[in-house]
């Protein structure tokens, strides 16, 4: 069973955007494995609470990510 797990900051995606991620990830697996993969492809979009993840030993927050986007 193909499986994709997306972890995103909580509150940053709309339901429509989550649906688009699920649809496109499923379509990608179908492109690779063929149509038989569609029925068994599992896509999980997990929302991580603010400050619940980091990079290089540094805890990241949504405010920091938004500042980085504006740079």
What features would you describe in this structure?
This protein has helices at residues 15-33, 62-70, and strands at 3-9, 42-48, 53-55, 58-60. The protein starts with a strand and ends with a helix. The chain is elongated. A hairpin with a 2-residue loop joins strand 3 (53-55) and strand 4 (58-60). Helix content is 39%, strand content 28%. The strands form 2 sheets. Strands 1-2 form a two-stranded parallel ribbon. A two-stranded antiparallel ribbon has the order 3-4. It is α+β, with helices and mostly antiparallel strands and 71 residues long. It has 2 helices and 4 strands; from the N terminus they run βαβββα.
Helical content band: 25-40%
Query: How would you spell out the order of helices and strands?
Result: EHEEEH
Radius of gyration: 15 Å
The count of β-strands is 4
The residue ranges in which pLDDT falls below 50 over 5 or more consecutive positions are none
Provide the β-strand percentage band. Answer: 25-35%
Distance between the termini: 40 Å
User: What's the main sheet like?
Assistant: 2 strands, parallel
| SS field, number of helical segments | 2
Strand order of the largest sheet: 1-2
Shape: elongated
Class inferred from helices and paired strands: alpha+beta
